[in-house]
Fold this protein.
Amino acid sequence: MSVTDEGMQVPRLDFELTTGCDHRCGHCYNVWGAKEGDAQAGYDPGRPLRTAAFKALMTKAVTQSGCTHLTLTGGEPLLRPDALEVIGHACTLVPAVHLITNGSHVTPAVAAGLTAAGVKSVQLTLLAGDATLHDRLKGAVCFDDTCRAALTLSEAGVAVTICYVAMAENAGELGAVMELACVLGARQISYNRMSPTGVAIHNIARLMPTVEQVEADLDTAEVLGPRLRVSVGTAMPLPPCLFRPERYAWVRFGYCSTGTASPNLVVDPAGNVRSCNLSSGILGNLARQDWAEIMANPYPRDFRREIPAMCKGCAYERSCNGGCKESGFATFGDATHPEPFLWLALHPEARAAMAATWPGPR
């Protein structure tokens, strides 16, 4: 079938090529990492599709959804043995393909393959300007790999975006990361504040940044961005009731995609479709169902309606949609509960209780 109903169309899709990863980030949001007893526990992506079946699935997804932008992620997508073949196929389907990788597997040959395929951009993560701190937060010795990957990709003509995840333990590092990104040839910063799902809920007390720390980052971005000519956009929602986005001319603010006309739907290695990469709720399986049937699932509609009571009537209710409600569900088992970043802003004493509930680092 082809797209005939405008309501079934989505401009972009994420494909998780694999659940495997060789880094051990404490802030990892992958829902299959949830532990027994967690609200998201039990997510099983099943057996990944083989190359031909996965490529056929991508073709079906694009044809039936009307998608024009694909993001390829994981896990670590380049750990998939057929990654370059799958990436090349994706580039034949849509005008824009974006790859998210940890950088440890980007060799000159891989960079050349991405260029030849037509990949528009690659996102790498830098959590600090200091190698020791970055590597500790990533759970792997990878700072040099990331820097090398950025240079290799830039030299190959692939645009590089640097992802920065704001946490309590890397507070104040954004400026150093922006300067390093500029040196490495990256001109875009994707600013994320920790939004815990998966295993990350067990590290909230240790890693969740404060409002003051995030606000200091935004101030840094506002000063350094124009000076370095590095754009900054927020990927995880920052509740505007806490930050007043109108104060910032340089930073572009984004909100929960499930509540917008551009939902960030995700397809896992077995063809399961979710409303975003932080969600564990499966809408359907594209290997066995058509897009129209999957899009008829009421979960996204019901999710949009589930607003924390304190957010109802707020001037930002429609745009913010309650912040990252999937992290609210993952942490508290209830999407109408204020998400943990907002909750800790209102109840800083709750951090100690969270440390007792989920003691110690991962």
In short: Residues 211-228 form the longest helix (18 residues).
